[in-house]
Amino acid sequence: MRALHRHRRVLALLVGAAALLITLDLRGDASALRSAVAAATGPAEQLLAAAWRPVATLAGAGDARRRAEEAERRSARLAAELWAERAARASDAQRHRIRAAHPRLTLVPAQVVAVRGDSVTIDAGTRAGVGPDMAVVTAEGLVGRVVAAGPAVATVLLATAPSAAAGVRVAESREIGTVEGRRDGLLTLRLLDADAELRPGQQVETLGSSGARPYPAGVPVGTVERVDPAREQFTRTALVRPAVTFSTLDVVGVIADAG
Fold first, then answer.
1. pLDDT of amino acid 68
2. pLDDT at 92
3. Would you say 155 and 143 are in contact if contact means Cβ atoms under 8 Å apart?
4. Own/partner pairs, 228-232, CB within 8 angstroms, 24+ separation
5. Residue 91's closest CA among 252, 254, 255, 219?
6. 144: closest CA among 55, 45, 246?
7. d(Cα 136, Cα 197) in Å, to the nearest integer?
C-alpha cells in the first residue's frame, strides 16, 4: 500500500512538471528549465517504470493461467467426445454381432441401464415393441426373459436367477431337460433320461416354447462343466456354465418374433 502511494506521488510530480513546461513553452522561457526538469524527473520516470513492471508481469501471468485453463477445458471436452464416439461404435458393433448370430430372429436392440439383483433394466419398452415373456439374447446366447415392460423400459429376469427355468436340449445328443438358475452364477441341468450320455464340454440350447414364447428353439444356453454322479432315479444332473458373461452385459436383443 505504501509503495502504491509512493508511485502515485511520483506520477503527480511528472504530470506537474509537464504542465509547467507547457506554460513556459508558451512564454518562451522553457529551455533552461527543461534541462533541469529532465535531470530531476529522469530518476522518477525510471522509478515509475520499475514500479509498473511487476504489475504487467502479474497481468501476463493471469492471462497465461486463463489460457491454460481454457486449454484444459477444451482437452476435457475433446476427450469426452472421443469417448462417446468410441462407445457408440462399440454399441453398433455389438448390435451387428447380435443380428449376425440370430439371423432368423426379429430383434429389438436395447441397452442395459440398471442392474438389480437377479434382473436388469433395459432402455426399450412397449413403445419399441417389447413386452412380457420375450426372450433376451446377446451374440453369445440366452440372457433371460422380459418379466415387466413400461413405455420406455423393461425388466429382464436373468437366466441365472434361482427363480428362472427354461426347457433345453443337449445339442449333440438331442436329449431334453431343464435348466434352473443358481446363486453361484451357474445353471443346474436336469435331463429327463437318467441314463442319457452326458459329459463336460457338451453344448446346451433352448428347447423352444409353444409359440416361441418366451424362448424360441436353438438359442445357446451354455456348456456342460461338470456331470454329477447318478444319484436320482429319474433324472441326470450336471452344472452348466452360461454362454453369456452376465457381469459385462451391455447391448442386448429382445426377440420380438422368432420368424
1. 82
2. 87
3. no
4. 230/194, 232/194
5. 252
6. 246
7. 30
The pairs formed by 218-224 with CB atoms below 8 angstroms and a separation of 24 or more are 219/102, 219/135, 219/137, 219/141, 219/142, 220/140, 220/141, 220/142, 221/141, 221/142, 221/159, 221/166, 221/168, 221/179, 221/187, 222/141, 222/179, 222/187, 224/170, 224/189, 224/198, 224/199, 224/200
CA pair distance 241, 50, nearest whole angstrom:
79
Place of cell 426373459: 145
- Biggest distance spanned by C-alpha atoms of the chain: 132
Nearest to 250 by CA among 144, 110, 125, 153: 110
The pLDDT score that the predictor gives to residue 130 is: 96
| Mean pLDDT of successive 10-residue stretches along the chain, which has 259 residues | 49 50 47 49 57 60 78 81 76 90 94 95 96 96 97 97 96 95 96 91 93 91 92 83 95 89
Q: What's residue 33's pLDDT? A: 45
Beta bridge partners of 107: 255
For residue 162, give every residue at least 6 positions away whose Cβ sits within 8 Å of its Cβ, in sequence order, or none: 118, 180, 181, 182, 183
pLDDT at 67: 80
Residue 258: what are its φ and ψ, rounded to 5°? -85, 0
- Rounded to whole angstroms, the Cα distance separating 44 from 51 reads 10
Check residue 88 and give its pLDDT.
Answer: 75
Q: In the numeric block, which cell numbers belong to residue 190?
A: 436336469
Give the ranges where the chain is alpha helix by DSSP (H): 2-27, 30-101
What is the phi-psi region of residue 191: left when phi exceeds 0, alpha when psi lies from -120 to 50, beta otherwise?
Answer: beta
Asked if 179 and 240 count as a contact pair (C-beta separation under 8 A), the reply is yes
Q: Say which residue the cell 534541462 belongs to.
A: 35
